[in-house]
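Hi F.,

I've been meaning to write this up properly since the lab meeting, where we talked about keeping a consistent format for the predictions we share between groups. The idea is simple: the sequence comes first, exactly as it goes in, then the structure tokens exactly as they come out, then a line or two of notes. No screenshots and no reformatting. I'm using this chain as the first example so we have something concrete to point to.
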Amino acid sequence: MTANTSSTPDLSSGLPLVVRSPAERFLNLPDWPYERREVLIPAGPTIPGVETLSVAYVDEGPKDAIPVVMLHGEPTWGYLYRHMIRELLDLGYRVLVPDQIGFGRSDQPTDKDAYTYPAHVSWMNAWWSAVAPKNAVFFGQDWGSLVGLAVASMHADDVRAIVIGNGILGRKFKPQEGGAFGMWQKFAASIDYL
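Output, unedited:
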């Protein structure tokens, strides 16, 4: 007998296509006084039956200040930047920190196959288009750099500078089976993520 390794949700079991972590899980976090804002974006083709997803984000500081957009990697969320947000606000910047789909306070598709690189780029591109930061500094960390660089290139006229931390460069990056990425995928697949 073999285990069912399909990541497609069994709709007959009542498993929802998208979940969101309860708001109370985020109450009273140290150094996190930031209001949850959200933008609804198209879910895209990787989640059949779902039209929109909610991207949660922080938007703090003067609206006419230079915006700094910070995109986290995996397996974290915008909370990663809690200390940087305060420092940037003290310097007079506007700070925007989205939680990528599947992380933090944003919607989380239950089908693991929904989480493709093109889907993440599409979701963050839709968020950027909706929030529309102009003349922004983009900071990407880890996978946030790979996704964010693609998005920044789509909004090149709205990006004044790019900063990468622990990042990945390359327009033709394609994760290969096996290797470190393959090991990470196997580890992530073994976690009960719900």
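Notes:
The chain has four helices and eight strands.
The CA atoms of residues 65 and 92 lie 7 Å apart.

If this format works for you, I'll send the rest the same way.

G.
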